[in-house]
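Risk mitigation, structural track. In case the binding assays with magnesium ion fail to produce interpretable data, a predicted complex structure has been prepared as a fallback.
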Amino acid sequence: MHTLTLAASKGGVGKTTLSSAIAVEAARKHQVGLYDLDPQQSLARWHELRANGDNISIIEARSAEDALSAATEQGCDLLIIDTPPALMLAIQPAIEIADLVVIPCKPSPIDVESIDPTVELAQTAGRPFVFVVNMVPTQGGAGLTKGTREFLKFNGDVMPQAVSQRLPYTAAMASGKSGPEVERDKKCAGEIQTLWRAISRKLHGLGK
Ligand SMILES: Nc1ncnc2c1ncn2[C@@H]1O[C@H](COP(=O)(O)OP(=O)(O)OP(=O)(O)O)[C@@H](O)[C@H]1O
Ligand SMILES: [Mg+2]
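Fallback model:
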């Protein structure tokens, strides 16, 4: 089983949105467990709204380590952990058990300035991490996005596929769905499929 932890000390960068979208995409082929470490429980609520019958289940556990055992027992082959912002002590155990830490970052100077605590936790724990640039404007802002990528590249791997700022990603959460599941065109689907493929390749390349 692989464990993916979405973490960022900065709030509102898309940890929960990307956790759910990646879960839906991964669930085409995998049994996915979701562990919501955030007291806000947004991901757990999202899952409650979701109709049963797919390969995604919520893992009830008292700690990230317990979630790992529970997910394994329940036959999951991917565990996705969504974490709260700022509470670095709470995030730490979820980073320590991750095969890969995904750090979403918005293309903005304030957001890139905030990556250090998360990167430090991953480095201290010796866990691999990647950045995903999220909420890239579909019009304008190319300079900011390029600058963000360049800054992030100094600090670690940046997933080539960014995720754009698109209404379906936001709207989908209210019905327990993902952006690709509610859009009319295939724009969200294209980016989430490519992103998941790259994350999956990375997870398998880690030799576990
Ligand atoms: N790619 C996107 N396109 C459009 N809206 C997005 C996208 N990603 C996230 N959002 C929206 O941005 C807001 C913050 O996203 P989300 O709740 O996923 O972030 P978070 O990092 O989990 O926040 P928190 O730190 O509070 O847990 C939400 O309103 C969400 O719908
Ligand atoms: Mg969240």
